[in-house]
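Residues determine shape. We examine one folded chain.
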Amino acid sequence: MSGTWEPDLLGDGYEQQVLELGPDPDGEGEVCAVVVRRVVRPEEKVRGAVLYVHGFSDYFFQTGLADFHAERGLAFYGLDLRKSGRARRSGQTAHYASDLEQYDAELERAMEIIAADHGVDTPVVVLAHSTGGLITPLWLDRRRRAGRTAPVAGLVLNSPWFDLQGQPVLRGPVTQALRVLAKVAPLRALDLPKSTVYGDSLHTSGKGEWDYDVVLKPLEGFPVTVGWLNAVRRGHARLHRGLEVGVPSLVLRSDKTHYAREHTDASDRADTVLDVKQIARWAGCLGGETTVVPVVDARHDVFLSLPAPRAAAYDVLGEWLDRHLG
C-alpha cells in the first residue's frame, strides 16, 4: 500500500498520511482519517508496532507515549479517526458517527500501512483511550469472527468507556430516548453541563504540562450529539453481551472517580470523566486473558497523570509488553 507522508504538526520526527475514506455515510461530505507515525530512527530496532486510537474530544499528541514504545522496539502509529482532530473537515460535526462500525474502515487502512512499513507478520498492539477503548474491542471482535485476528497481538485500554455514567435507574430511560431522537434529530447537541475541569488539569493554560491544540481538543470538550451517543450506547450493549477480542488485554484505570464543577487538587488524582467502577465491572466482557490494573491517583488518561501515577502506569504497561511480546 502506498501513500504520501507529509510533515505533521508535532514537528520533527513525526509524519502524517491522510486516508481518504469516500462519502460520509452520515451525509457530511467526503470523510478522511489521518495516520501519524513516529519516524523510526536509524539506531532503533523494530520488533513490533503500536496503533494508538484516541477518545472523544481528543487527537494524538502524546509524544511521550510514542517514545516509550519506541524504546522497546515498537514502531508507533497514532490514528485520528474521521471527523476528529486532524481529520475533521469544514462543516463536519466533531467526532460524529451514527455507527461505531464505520471506524473499521480507517482502522483496517492503518493496519495496512503498518504492514507496508514493517511487514505483514509484524505483531501489532492496539492501544486505545476512553471512547477508543470501546471502538477497538468491538472492531477486534468483528475481526476475530471473520477469522482475521493476526497480526494484532495484544490490546491495551486506557480508561475505556464501557458504560454510561450516572445512576442505573436513569440509564435505561435515557438510552430509550436516544433511540427515538436519533431517528429524527441525530445531529442535535445534548444540553449537558460544560466543564473545563479535566482540560484544566492537563493543559498548560491551567494546571497541566501539555501544550496541545485546544481547537482540536477543547478544554470543555465538543458537544455531545444524540446520534453519536446512541451509537455509543449500542456499542455498550454489544460489549455487555460479551466479546472475544482474540488477544490478551490490559485495562488500565484510575483507582477512583471524582466529579466536580471546579478544578481542585483532587481533580488531578482521579478520573474526572468516567466512573471507574463501571470499567472494573465490564472489563471481563472482553473475553480471553484480561488483566485489569487500577493505578492509584491516575487521571482519566493514565499516561497524562501526575508524574508518580504516570510512572506507575508505564511500569505496568512495560511489564505487560515484555510478558506478551517477549
Notes: The chain has one domain: 6-325. The chain has a mean pLDDT of 96.
